[in-house]
Amino acid sequence: MLIKRYIALGCTAIVGAALLVPAVAEAKGKCTVVGGQGTGVTPEIATLMATNALSESLASYGGKGKGKVATKCDGMVVMATCTAKQRACK
């Protein structure tokens, strides 16, 4: 009797989890983080290139950017590489 109860409880939990997963995936499918990377002689140029690459990523994704653009550079004075990221939603 006890084993049948655990099996029934386990099946109920698996079915409940299977029903929950599509709802979570659908909610997360509307927004994502897109980014772009740029390299330039100076960090300012690399930031500009990364921002332009981010704009291209947003256009190809087909969504609109939400929030601030997060830009991070590698710290090199000459031939810097920067990455720009932003949340995008359809």
**Rounded mean pLDDT score:** 77
The Cα radius of gyration reads: 22 Å
Shape: elongated
Sheet bearing the most strands, described? Answer: 3 strands, antiparallel
Q: Structural class of the secondary elements?
A: alpha+beta
| Total domain modules | 1
> Share of helix among residues?
40-55%
* Widest β-sheet, arrangement of strands: 1-3-2
Separate helix tally = 2
**What is the strand tally?**
3
Amino- and carboxy-terminal Cα gap: 51 Å
The helix-strand sequence is: HEHEE
The stretches of 5 or more residues where confidence is low (pLDDT under 50) are 5-27
β content, as a range?
Answer: 25-35%
Provide a brief overview of the structure.
The chain is an alpha+beta fold and 90 residues long.
Explain what this protein looks like in three dimensions.
It is built from 2 helices and 3 strands; from the N terminus they run αβαββ. By secondary structure, it is of the alpha+beta class. It has one domain. Strands 1-3-2 form a 3-stranded antiparallel β-sheet. The chain is elongated and about 40 Å long. It starts with a helix and ends with a strand.
